Amino acid sequence: MSFEPKNTAVKWVEDRLPIMGMLHHALYEYPTPKNLSYWWTFGSLAGVVLVIQIVTGIVLAMHYTPHVDMAFNSVEHIMRDVNYGWLMRYMHANGASMFFIVVYLHMFRGLYYGSYKAPRELLWWLGLVIFLLMMATAFMGYVLPWGQMSFWGATVITNLFSAIPVVGESIVSWLWGGFSVDNPTLNRFFSLHYLLPFVIVGVVILHIWALHTNGSNNPTGIEIKDGQDSIPFHPYYTVKDLFGLAIFLIFFSAFLFYAPNYMGHPDNYIPADPLVTPVHIVPEWYFLPFYAILRAVPDKLGGVLLMFGAIAVLFALPWLDKSRVRSARFRPIYKQVFWVFVLVCVALTYMGAQSADGNMVEFRGMVPVEINGVVQMKDGVVLMEEGITFALSNVLVSQLLTAYYFLHLLVLLPMIGLFERPRPLPASIAEDVLAKSPAKEEASNA
Amino acid sequence: MTTTTPGEEDGVKRRDFLYVAAGGLGAVGTAAAIWPFISQMNPSADVLALSTTEVDLEGIEVGSEITTVWQGKPVFVRHRTGEEIKKAEDVVVAELPDPEPDADRVIKPEWLVMIGVCTHLGCVPVKEQGEYDGWFCPCHGSHYDTSGRIRKGPAPLNLAIPPYEFLDDSNIKIG
Prior knowledge:
Chain A has about 450 residues and is mainly alpha-helical. Chain A is built from 17 helices and eight strands. Chain A has three domains: about 25 residues, no CATH class; about 250 residues, Cytochrome Bc1 Complex, Chain C (Up-down Bundle), CATH 1.20.810.10; about 100 residues, no CATH class. In chain A, strands 1-2 form a two-stranded antiparallel sheet. In chain B, strand 9 and strand 10 form a beta hairpin. The mean pLDDT of chain B is about 85. Classes of the chains: A mainly alpha (about 450), B alpha+beta (about 180).
């Protein structure tokens, strides 16, 4: 069903710019696998959240002042004086967290169903580029309210670049526009925070273009073979995505109206003070796993390299995964290891929020008295005192989790792909869908 | 040129040269045009001009310190006690992560002037804390001694000493 406009005005435009035909093609002709589950809703949800962020962001920029003396107060002005300013700001701040929740689920979906495998490697790469741009944008946005966490977060993150040998210090001074995080830094972060979302929009267009070139992956991980396997995007998936959106908006609203500061940090309601560092610095929750990896390494450059490496290694995923079967549904070993990996990522997030020098687990009891490493004796009996018998430090736990993160991606993924024996794949998507349909079972019983 | 033979071969070579030369010049020109857009992010003239701070040492009691600001960064000015000086001098320098004798870090032993920025990731360390009774960085747990030298933790270097001079017995100029 190709697009043949009847309206002469539409036809006139179409002959000069075939934009309606392109949309018509994407909605009615673009074949979508008929078996997409709700895990496939997070892509369009991410698109919606991006639009929410851009619209609320443009509104906030109308009332915000990017100057060290006025930034904090202008945010309070938005919260107290601007009509619905509180709503705009809370939507924007919580929207950032929502964006990461949706994108993380979208990425884990891709990992489970092998969506990154040929011929969708570039689709995966473009997604990772969007993820990196999102992190840069979120980081710079968090600096703008110019609270204590804004300032010290900016200081710590920009200082990561000082780990680069020789030119590190020059790069940091170049990023700051001075000798510390100050007004020039705030000004440029505001400029770039406004720019990057539109760069994200550009990469999203490429991401969708790449998606439409080979079509969506699906829960079986096998390609569409004929018309039996697919349905048009509209109305089937527009309706499914709208339902998913409704559920998501309830979730979003619960935070927005009942716990708008739950994902923030109270210290950011204290104006930035360049002379006093808060006792416990934590980044926003979506950076915590990477922060945990950074802190797990006792060496400055090593920590920074491993943290960036944790994302860089994802680019190699299409080649690290040696299995020819995409979907974990047919991969008995990978399926289990995948969930271990998810748990490790969640645990890293938890560890990122813990203090750097504490203990995760601590058992107390009687231990021998030692002075300078020598066990003290009296009358042939070892002297005992109350102390820590066994401790598992936060640093060690983070190190073990970090090791597993890389072990999974660099060792387990290639090895399992080589040795695992996948279950037989269905002949087609249609066959798989019918095999699970209760109607068919009834028919065969009759 | 319409003839075939060496002439055309020659022409192709000349074109190759022109192609590379034009492309090379274009690349140099583009790089030169981009440079101002990169350089504008470096510290501006007014930021560079804020380069000195004077501190009056009168009133800083023995065993106390003040924090002043130089180039937007906190600077610790500490009036050290005899015990702190002795501790700082008694250390075996060769065993330190960033070996530096205390004498190289002070002009007068009782006055320790240093930039209060942790050399790990830039937090401000807290005074009179940590395992070496000097400074402790709350962000990632670096311990500095009474000379501001790194002793334990992720920071790679000692707290930096800014350039400063004594104007008279009770005034210093930093920068």
